[in-house]
Amino acid sequence: MVNKVMLIGNLGRDPELRMTQTGRAVANVTLATNRRWRDAQGQKQEETEWHSLVFWGRQAELADRLLSSGRRIYVEGRLQTTSWHDTKTGDKRYRTEVVCQNFQLLDAPPGAAPGVAPMAPTPPDALDAMVGMDGHDEPEEVSGEPALGEPVDEPTLEESELPPFD
Length: 166
Fold this sequence. Notes:
Helices cover 10% and strands 40% of the residues.
């Protein structure tokens, strides 16, 4: 079976970098992708889809250093859905995010001199080595609260313990 996501879009905000209790970095950011088409009347239409991205380890540290709101990036990863029970309403809630395995900058950094190229394409194996992907990209607890992407099936959780919704 295959669980692979490839997206090109613009970042909606600067990365939010946190450290797990064991000292591992985790960064969260949103990515906007657009779809354009013509409707039955020939009018141009556009739709924006927002994606929640999560980076782990050395890659999270690089994302925090290199990424900022508005930057255009290519990202590869896998989909992960978290579910939990809302203790106030009793409803089951879901959040789907992209656990990023590598990314590539597609534009020049803000304030760069004209003609400055974005980061050159990097073979996936080299990028994995560069960002320290060692197959241990599983979430850990962050400050005693469930990490984004961590499965939460306990119906007794308080709302403050739930992953935030963007």
